[in-house]
Amino acid sequence: MKGYIKREILKVTKELNREEDLIAVEKRLRLRVNGQEILKLYCSPTMVRELVAGFIMTEGIIEGSWCAERMEISYGDDIVVDVPAEGEVNLEGATITSGCVGGITFDHSLNTEGRKPSDISLGAGQLRELFQSFQRASNLYNLTGCIHSAAISDGKSLIVLAEDIGRHNAVDKAIGYCFLENIPLNDKIILVSGRLSSEMVSKCIRWAIPVVVSRTAPTALSVSLAEKNHITLIGFMRGIRFNIYTHPERVRL
Question: Catalytic site residues?
Fold first, then answer.
């Protein structure tokens, strides 16, 4: 399913012109576990399997085993996803996030299951080139201007790039892809388009992603979390400039 539709609009400049425009699609996703609906969220209708896998794994809402391969997805007015699981659903501590589409996160402990961020080393020029590649590859944003992006990199190239109307969803899609493909994240970099709030950084901490890079700013709480959990937090990556907020030892300047 495409992440955009075409629509004729009236464009107002010095003149009035009717033009075809591309508009981002927003769909409601209804998540079920063993046939029982547990929550709804709004998303772009792309990489849905990765989104659900990433959301389950970054938020820890299923305690016990569940089967990604047997996940059933149906597309209609809503996207309905049913996940078979032997574990129990834990929705305690639900918190409305600062996400632009009314996201939700769960106040579970930052359980990394023994994963630790590695001491990777990256050059400043290397980071700039990666982020430029990330921005060029954000096709849905470039088409609609209405999308957040997230990408996972090994420091040389982009492993996966995900786009969504919600910045949390984009991160969940990128992490979910790596989970489904058995790609370890403790020696990778995550590149994001949106602000770095605490719940965004918490997702990265759970998977021990050592370097988090954004075009925009972090919050004070996200900086504190990154400092305590040995994550290098980089913001305002624009052109040749960027700010390193925590653990600068991973960046060669």
Answer: 100
